[in-house]
Amino acid sequence: MAENEKSIRFGIMGCAEIARKVSRAIHLAPNASLVAIASRSIHKAKQFAVQNKLSENVKLYGSYDELLDDPFVDAVYMPLPTSLHVKWAVRAAEKGKHVLLEKPTAIDVKMFDDMLKACESKGVQFMDASMWYHHPRTAKMKEFLSNSDLFGRVKAVSIIHSSSSYHGTPEFLENDIRVKPDLDALGALGDTGWYCIGAILWTMNQKLPTTVTALPTTIRNSAGVILSCNASMYWDEEQIVATFYCSFISHETMELAVCGSNGTFHVEDFIIPYDESSAEFSFTSGAKFVDLHIGWNVKPQEVRVATDIPQEAMMIQEFSRLVKGIKDHGLQPDAKWGQTSRITQLVLDAVRNSIDNGYEAVQM
To answer: Which residues contact 87 (CB under 8 A, 6 or more apart)?
Structure first.
């Protein structure tokens, strides 16, 4: 299919590094095309187009408003600093553009609600750009967690743990927007912690915890931005505890582990698979120690899930499918994605409030 015949036409607002990955994803998705790039200057937009070998048919704009005024743009992807999200997401919705928003979605849930209300009032699709939800491995992992014979159930005193961390370079820790309080005040909690919280809530079928408590291990930079933190989440009815660790100053981790009544589950690379063409997870079911406790009766089983296109292209494909349903068939936006983001934002806010209030427990 020729590029100009593809279904949904995307504009990218902002030339952040992650936009390079998503522009490639739009090209790889079978039902989307990239038609416009906007930056705060036309020079930056031209530079992005050259560096990423974009088609000369992609329009280049020196302001975000110019892109939003383009009637040929159906949807926008926004890799802007978090502090700018509410302004531009609301403006995009008002212009009738569907919104794919980089995470974290907002500084707090009030700002998030302003964005979601704008999208809902204009009937446009909202989704945050957490790519891992769209990998077929994720659906396969959910199958295992839902299999009562293999996994049992997440029950009292069960533990869920997630971590997302990487070791920022001195340049990153000094100059990246994610360590600037006026641009991304949430720091590691908003960047890597967003994934941890989302993964835990995904495991719990988006049920909010009863209590959220940050642990007294938070590290901040001189501007007060979080570089590393830990927190726990507790579900009173089920008596389930989840913990997570997020950081800009530790070795690379992207882990999720869940213990059930009859099985355990572990994935090491849930955010970005080691290989974009396939991804794995492992599980152990019915494990017991053998006689004399010198070994186990079973070993972990590996499950591999192959893909034709990378997970970010699957995200674009799914978003475009939803937009096409709205645009061509009068369907309603899928509210699941906005609610998933909102619940994640609520827990993120609770962790931040716990840190700011001396690590007190926050009731949800």
So the answer is: none
Same domain, 304 and 316: no
CA-based nearest residue to 364, from 201, 187, 181: 201
pLDDT digits (tens, 9 = 90+) for 87-126: 999 999 999 999 999 999 999 999 999 999 999 999 999 9
Of the candidates 360, 362, 363, the one whose C-alpha atom is nearest the C-alpha of residue 216 is 360
- 315/21 Cα distance (integer angstroms): 12
Which two three-digit tokens encode residue 26? 């739009």
Task: Select from 238, 146, 230, 168 the least CA-distant residue to 196.
Answer: 230
Helix (H) or strand (E) holding 28: helix 17-28
Q: Render pLDDT for 353-363 as a digit per residue (tens, 0 to 9).
A: 999 999 999 99
Instruction: Answer for the pair 35, 101: CB distance below 8 angstroms, yes or no.
Output: no
Nearest to 337 by CA among 84, 98, 111: 98
Two tokens at 86? 């509410």
Q: Peptide bond preceding 104: is omega within 30 degrees of 0, i.e. cis?
A: yes
Helix 335-356, helix 187-203: angle, nearest 10: 130
Angle at 17 between CA 101 and CA 270, to 5 degrees: 65
Within a domain: residue 339?
no
Question: For the whole prediction, is pTM greater than 0.85?
Answer: yes
The domain that holds 140 is classified in CATH as 3.30.360.10
- For 54, 72, 124, the CA distances from 9, given in Å and listed in that order, are 14, 7, 14
80 and 162 share one domain: no
- Strand, helix or coil for residue 102: coil
